[in-house]
Amino acid sequence: MRTIAILIPVLLVAAWSCDSSEAHEPNFGAELPTTNFIVDPAKDTVLKTPGGAQISISAGSLDAGDAPSVTLEVKEAFTNDDMNRGGLLHGSREANNSAGMIYINVTGGQSVSIHKPLNISIPAKTPGTEMMVYKGVAGDDALLKWIEARALTSAPSQPSTDAGKTLFENRCASCHGGKEEVAGPPLAWITSRRDRQWLYAFTRNNAILLWRGDGYSCYLFNRYKAPMPLFKDLSDDDLGNLYNYIAAASKSVDSNAVMDHKRGFDSCVANDANCGAAAQRVAHTDTVTAAPSNEAPVADFYTFAVDKHGWYNVAGKIGDAAVAGAAFPTVSADSLHPAAESLQACPCWCNESAYRRADSLGREKPARRGR
After folding, report:
1. Are 204 and 280 in contact (CB under 8 A)?
2. Which of 1, 106, 155, 245 has the fewest C-beta atoms under 10 angstroms from its C-beta?
3. Rounded Cα distance, 185 and 187, in Å
4. Which CATH class is domain 5-157+296-315?
5. Residue 222's CB: how many other CB atoms inside 10 A?
6. 3-state DSSP call for residue 174?
């Protein structure tokens, strides 16, 4: 029976370099945190990353000469915010349909090559069709390019979206489109842009987030001038079905055509003192809810083999067919949200009296709509 070593990572934020020429390219993601692992190349090893990925290394896979150990560094970008922060989204269209990106390398001062492929598994948090793995290389324009598309070793089966579609039509469609603004923001690609813990909390009871002064919740409220009804009756399974449907239906929508208010909010946080203070204040409050168990089932991974150091991206191409039956309902022209007036300031701070009225209104309205 082989011995599996589960290594505990040490989180570091650092620049990196390496003597191996193979490990020098591409140099992207410097703004992302690094996790270092010390590996015995003579043993079978499984690394578990902070983001939930697993890296399986069989004995003899890493050729380090006579060195008794190898230090590997890993970076992860499993959300659009992290991909943007690491400069990973701008070079190829495939990046806009990513299920997650991961980087593996050896730390500086080592001469190590991959003698046998390593198996990498990243959490499949959103369903995808015809997903492939791409290798990252530096392009002539100094942007990261995703090339050498290869089939995955394994991928989760596509979940049914029927239950989520019914919930969307009954609870959300009157206020939301896929890429259209109606009474609330568009929802295509929302599962890639927002953390599911926040999505579940906001969908179920946005009043709690408003009362706590959550800056982005306040930003949305001030943008759309109306409270969102409460959906306290929705279970984690209900919300999982709803957001799995939204993720599947998003595959038929070009992400570049979908407004992302979070980018405007992030700009406000960076440049407006009130927004920055609101974000800092919320960062010191208790978490709003425990992460739902069906956000990233342990058994659901995209798995692929690698034989080179560098960045890898699991993605489908823009325009890949959505799951059968998974498409957003058509939005009529008279339902579209009017063009918003220019905001004179970043509306991130919650006004207690306004949200007291909003909370009261939200409780009086029947729960038929969602944002």
Report:
1. no
2. 1
3. 6
4. mainly beta
5. 17
6. coil
Per-residue confidence of the chain (371 residues) as pLDDT tens digits?
444 444 434 333 222 333 343 444 447 888 899 999 999 999 999 999 999 999 999 999 999 888 999 999 999 998 878 888 888 877 566 555 788 999 999 987 888 988 899 999 998 876 555 788 999 988 887 788 888 899 999 887 766 678 889 999 999 998 999 888 888 899 998 988 888 889 999 999 988 888 777 888 888 888 887 778 899 999 998 998 899 889 888 878 888 888 888 887 887 777 776 666 655 554 433 333 323 333 333 348 899 999 999 999 998 765 444 444 567 877 666 656 555 444 445 666 666 555 555 555 444 444 444 44
Question: Looking at the whole model, is its pTM more than 0.70?
Answer: no
In the β-sheet with 310-315, what is the strand arrangement from edge to edge? 10-12, 34-39, 70-77, 98-106, 310-315, 132-138, 144-151
Task: Report the CATH number of the 162-294+324-364 domain.
Answer: 1.10.760.10
72, 143 Cβ separation under 8 angstroms: no
Give the residue from 189, 187, 164, 200 showing the smallest Cα distance to 291.
Answer: 200
State the burial class of residue 119 (Cβ atoms within 10 Å of its Cβ: 0-12, 13-18, 19+).
middle
Looking at the chain, the domain(s) classified CATH 1.10.760.10 span 162-294+324-364
From edge to edge, which strands make up the β-sheet containing 5-7? 5-7, 45-48, 54-57, 118-123, 301-306
Cα torsion through 148, 154, 155, 157, rounded to 10: 140
| Distance of alpha carbon 150 from alpha carbon 306, whole angstroms | 10
Cα end-to-end span (Å), the chain: 52
Pull the structure tokens for residue 348: 């991130």
| CA 38 – CA 20 distance, rounded (Å) | 18
Domain with CATH 2.60.220.30 in the chain: 5-157+296-315
- The C-alpha atoms of residue 42 and residue 48 are separated, in whole angstroms, by 18
Is residue 152 within 8 Å of residue 338, measured between CB atoms?
A: no
